[in-house]
Amino acid sequence: MNTFCKYYLVLLMAMVLLAECKCFGQTHYIDSLIKASENSNLINNDRIGLLISIYKAYDYEEQYYKGKPYLDTALELALKNGLIERVADVKVELGRYYLTADDYVEAQRLLIEAKRTYKFENYVGKACVPLKYLGLIYYQKDNYSEAISYLDEAISEADLGKFNVESFTSKYLKALALTKIDSLDEAYHIFMNILSQPDSIVSRQRRMETNVGTGDVFLKKNKLDSASYYYLTAYTFFDHEKNVSAISYAGTKLANLYLIQNRVDSALMIAMRCYTIADSTKNKSLKYEAAKIISDAYLKKNNFKDAFYFLNVYDSLRGILYDEENDKKLLQFNIKAQKADNEAQQRLNEKEALQQQKVKNTFIGAFILTTLLLIISLVSIKQNRKKTLALKKSKDEVQHALNKLQNTQEELIRQEKLASLGKMVAGIAHEIQNPLNFVKNFSESSVQLIDEIAKANQEEQPQLLNELSENMGRIQEHSNRASGIVRSMLMYSRNESFEKQKTDINIMLNDFIPLAYEGLHSSDPVFSCRVEKNFAELPLVLCSAQDISRVLLNLLTNAFYAVNDKKKTANEYFLPLVIIKTQVVEEGIKITIRDNGKGIPDAIKEKIFEPFYTTKPAGTGTGLGLSLSYDLIKAHRGTLKVESRLDVYTEFSVTLPLSEN
Predict the structure, then answer these.
(1) CA distance 279 to 197
(2) pLDDT digit string, tens, across residues 338-381
(3) What does the alpha-carbon distance between residue 547 and residue 530 come to, in Å, rounded to a whole number?
(4) Do 512 and 552 form a contact (C-beta atoms < 8 A)?
(5) Is the pTM of this model over 0.85?
(6) Pairing of strands 577-585, 530-535
């Protein structure tokens, strides 16, 4: 196994818990906790909480071994006073201690006991924490399938208890394990989901760790430039924050990438830094990984002496970190723990079965009484059977009339929509009047400027010509605005349909993605956005290419506008992203366009397909794009739907049947 992240992953669990309190690094803070825990007026529950906090403080300073006696005291106190939940809490921390100390068997024993207590005592969701660390144990031992199994259970428990931070931590670890077994698309999807979360759920530290995981995915896909971007972003952030363990974690990844790219000097420089940090913090795992990179780098430089030295360091550390006998004990204990869990579950099932039998006996009497009543009722029903048949015939006639009425109603709605266009003309006229007024005013001003230019001397002419040029630009701008309103109105109101033909949707998307991107870029030169395409192999679709192209161009333009709008107010770590995906589904083919913009509030989701309704600022949209798109897709017997989460994402999905049948 690549164990470079072993110690670091355990350490970051403590850092997540203590990130809000950086003063933990100060000795006087730990002293104050110790003094508070010795207060004779404290109740036992609070004293145990303080003892756990003392351990976490030492662990945060990478002196976890100094905090161990306080955990032992806390466990003794919890057992003595019968505090079941606190016993489990302390066992979780002791499990984390032994995990950091590479004693996986003892760590597993304590964590399984804590998990069992949380689940069978019905402390909803709390089992997610020991389950997460159990997943981490198997991740570090290269048993990725077992790790994923534990982490999936941890995610379910966290979601059940609404522990969002724990849920995303387990998802992050699961994505790392998926990367190891080459489930790259699933891992990448999880990483992107984590990065799209608000800061209240995912901290900057976690975002940067996720960047490292994303870099791993791109490295395995041999997309080295993308991997370099994510590794370097994380490494720079950790370096700025002076987080030495994290520097080694990200730095080792970056050095390995540079070695692959044959940037040997850069790889050697970063790897040596990571080696020095790991040696000073007694982090065997990171030292092991850095030693391997340094040895390979020296080998490429034909420096065989130093290469051999670091290869010896690597081999000696490998013997320490990998213990086959310990792995066997771990497997045996896991089997015993599973058996104990099954037996406990069986006892619980037997208890529930006994309770159900009591309930069943109660209902038997009620069932007998009900059966007698039913017999009486059946006699009465038989007598009324003729009446029922007559009623059924009447019902069928009413249903037929209702269906006819519904068809008529749909036709009336379509006619009403066309008729409503007449009422919309006043609003359109008002929208057009503003740009036309601007055109008229700037035209009159331009005529005056031309007269002044004719009379002006050579020194005055350049300034006047510049003013004239600005007027021409404004005239063009507002003319385009009026033209856009009229064009959108005509598209919305037309009834004719273009001829349908077999169309390749993937080719159409490839044509319109750059068109939409450059359309926004031309009006905002600083606009940039990462575009990801995940196209399945699609059959040809029978459709009007002109109609569908309008829909796709509108949805793509809206997506780019959304991420650009969010970029103007988001923090510096926000990365605009638009994902376009196609796939074959039961209904035909499905196109999804997802952006990580500001999202759409729930209160207005149902309105966005209405004519003239827009979420854009006044003057920047006609409000007809989505309404027109909705009608065009409906005319193709498809669907246009939207899903959104405020400040996280918006996703429009289009489904189209393959043919008219």
Answers:
(1) 35
(2) 555 655 556 656 666 676 766 666 667 666 767 766 776 666 66
(3) 27
(4) yes
(5) no
(6) parallel
